[in-house]
């Protein structure tokens, strides 16, 4: 795998394989190709599954998700969105 850090601090990963980040480090994911992204996320300690369950409820709404609510749920779980 040929990985590098770009000027914005985004880890650029090519190929398949793990991307490991320490707790508290900012992580940015940018999909640049045409193929859908598949991710397997493993976290410790546990608890992130509650975040995904709450987001799934919001994304399952017939009129689509309220993204402000997604941001609020994220913040409650220590996830913060940053500008590129």
Count of discrete domains = 1
Beginning-to-end CA distance, first to last residue = 24 Å
Shape: globular
Taking all Cα atoms into account, the compactness measure Rg is 15 Å
Q: Hey, roughly how much beta strand do the residues contain?
A: under 5%
Order of helices and strands: EEHH
Which spans of ≥5 residues are poorly predicted at pLDDT below 50? none
Query: Number of helix segments?
Result: 2
| Secondary-structure content class | mainly alpha
Count the beta strands.
Answer: 2
Main sheet characteristics: 2 strands, antiparallel
Helix content: 25-40%
Key descriptive features of the protein:
84 residues
Q: Topology of this protein?
A:
Elements lengths: L3 E2 L5 E2 L35 H12 L7 H10 L8
Antiparallel strand pairs: 1-2
Helix pairs in contact: 1-2
Description:
This protein has 84 residues and is mainly alpha-helical. The chain has one domain. 26% of the residues lie in helices and 5% in strands. The chain is built from two helices and two strands; from the N terminus they run ββαα. It has helices at 48-59, 67-76, and strands at residues 4-5, 11-12. It has a two-stranded antiparallel sheet with strand order 1-2. A hairpin with a 5-residue loop joins β1 and β2. α1 (48-59) runs antiparallel to α2 (67-76). The longest helix is centred in the middle third of the chain and has 12 residues, at 48-59. The two termini are 24 Å apart.
């Amino acid at each position: 795998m040929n990985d590098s850090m770009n000027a914005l601090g985004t880890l650029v990963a090519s190929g398949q394989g793990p991307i490991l980040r320490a707790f508290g480090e900012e992580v940015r994911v940018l999909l640049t190709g045409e193929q859908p992204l598949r991710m397997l996320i493993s976290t410790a300690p546990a608890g992130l599954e509650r975040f995904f369950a709450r987001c799934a409820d919001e994304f399952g709404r017939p009129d689509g998700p309220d993204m402000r609510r997604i941001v609020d749920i994220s913040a409650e779980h220590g996830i913060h969105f940053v500008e590129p």
